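Researcher: Go.
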Amino acid sequence: MQNESRGRVVKIALGLLMLGAAIVGGDTVSNFNGDLLIFAAFLVFGLALPDIQLTRVGTLPAVFGILILLCVLVQMLPLGMLDSDGLGPMFLTSSFIETSRVLLSAFCALMVLFVALSLSYTQVRALMPFLYVALYCNLLMGAVQFSSRTRIREGLFDYPLAGGFFVNPNHFSTFLVVFIPFLMFSILYEKRKRFAVGTLCAVLLVLLAANSMAGVGLGLVVTVASALGLMERRHLSLYAVLGGLLLVAVYLVGFQNQVSMESSVSATTRYQFAMTTLEGIRAYFWMGVGYGTFADAYPMFMRPEDIQRWYVNHAHNDYLELVFEGGILALMLIVLYLALFVRQAWLSWSDPFKRSAAIAIAIILIHSTVDYPIRTFAILLMFAVLNGVLFHQGKRVKMPRSRTLPVLIDGQEVSVPMARVRTG
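Model: Structure:
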C-alpha cells in the first residue's frame, strides 16, 4: 500500500514536470527555465529512486542510458594531458561548458525515462491527463497568437513566443502532431470519443494556422497512418466515415494553401546546411567536435558563397548534427537506438496504447531529419516519456479485434467482445 501511495505521488510529480516543460521548455538554448526543469527532474528522480530497480527499468533501457552518458563523458576527459608535448587540446570537445550542458540535458531525459519505467503501466497511462492539459495550454496560446498574428513576449519568458509556448512554430507543430495517435486511440478504444474528436479537430486547425510546412504535412500523414494502424478490424458507422472524409478534405485544402505559399528557399538552405555539416563530419568523424559546439564549429566549413546574414545555430538535421558533434560513437548510438525502437515496436504492436507511443516516437524521429525538435526540453521530455511507455515492462494488453455486445452485469451495461467463429 505504501509503494502504491508513493507511486501515485511520483506520477503526479512527473505529470506536473511534463506540464511545466510544455509551458516553459519551448526554447532551444540553455536558459533559466531550462535550469529549473533540470532541477525539477532531479527532484522527481529522487522521489522515485526507491522504486527504480533494474527489474522494473529493464536491461536494454538501462544499458543504453549508460552508453549515452559515457559517450558524452569521454569528450570531457582530460586526454590532452597524455600528450608528451602538451600542445594538444585539453579535452576532446572544443567547449567543456557546452558539452557539460548537453550532459545535464541527457541526464535529465534519462531520469524522466527511468521514472516512467519505474511506475506501473496503469500509472504511466494515467499521465495522459497532464499531457492533455499541456496540449490545451499550447492550443489556446497558439490560437491567440495566430488570431492576432503577433509574437507574444511575456515576462516569464526571455524569448518571443512564435507558436504556442515555443520559440519555433515547427517545434510547436511537432508537439501537436505527437498527440494525434493518442487522440485516435481514444476515438477507437475509449469512451471519451467526443473529447477526442473535438481535440483532434482543434489540433488540425491550429496546425494549419501555425505556418509550418513540415507540421502540416506530418499532421496529414500521421492522422491517416494512426487511423489505419489503430483501427484494425473495427466496424465504423457511416457517419464516422463521412465525418473523417470531410475532415481530411478540409485539411487537404489548407495543406494545398500551405504548399502554394511555401518557397523553395527553405529546402535549398537545408540542403546547404547538410552538405556543409557532412564536410565537418568527414574532418572530425572519429570523435566529433564536441556535443553542443555545432554553432562554433560549423563556420569552419562554410564556403564564402554560403555565408548569409542568418546565424546558423543548428544543422536542421539532428542525425547529421549529432554525428558532427559526437563522431562515430554518436553514429553507433543512433543506429543502435533505431534498431531497438523497431524491435520494441514490433514486440509491442498488440497493445494499441504502446502502438500509439511508437507512432508518436516515429513522428519525432522523422521530423528530426529536417529540423531539431528534440533540442527543446518540452519535446525532449515528451520523447523520454513516450519511450517509457513503449519500453515499459508492464503486461502488454491485446485489445479485442472483434465487435462487442452490450451485456447487463449486476444492472450495469458492459461491452463484451463477441467471439469469432472459424468455419471450415
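Model: The longest helix spans residues 318-347.
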